[in-house]
Amino acid sequence: MYQSLEAAIEDVWGQDVSIKKKQSVSGGDINDAYRLVLSNGEDAFLKLNHNASKDFFTAEANGLKAMGETGSNVPNVLAYGNTADNAKFLILRYEENGNRASDYWESLGRMLANMHRAKTKGFTPNSLYGFYENNFIFRDAQNFQRGKIFSRRFFFICVSNKNFCACRREI
After folding, report:
1. What distance in Å separates the CA atoms of residue 132 and residue 167, rounded to the nearest whole number?
2. Taking Cα atoms as reference points, which of 63, 79, 67 lies closest to residue 11?
3. H helices of the chain, where?
4. pLDDT tens digit string along 65-117?
């Protein structure tokens, strides 16, 4: 975890690289989102949150890494940490918007199915369902209760309920 945005940029791209321009982009409602134009001509995607808990982007980075290890196409995490004013940040590879392929939804469904079929040995203790650390859904903490059964009841309570924290209480 980096202690400044500048330190993260230097470590990932080199000492001579800095942020040339920071452009606000749309797409999120929890975090501020920016396209960083770097002095070396490359672009990066920055998520910034002034109100997040200390492990907010650490959990997201670890989750993205685990999803990527299943063969899923996920953003490449480059760095995360805190800014000088204690905002939390996550830097990802920047991807241009493009046209969706005609089989976009089918491909997404297959990728999600493959991700959920993946062996969980590296992600959870004793290959139980869940994840090795708690993370977040929107601003709310998602506390995993690890178990051998991933029931329809879990799905119904956690996914269809607007209060995601109900998962922990109901299972």
Report:
1. 17
2. 79
3. 5-13, 56-69, 104-117, 152-160, 166-170
4. 888 888 888 889 999 999 988 899 999 999 888 788 899 889 888 888 887 77
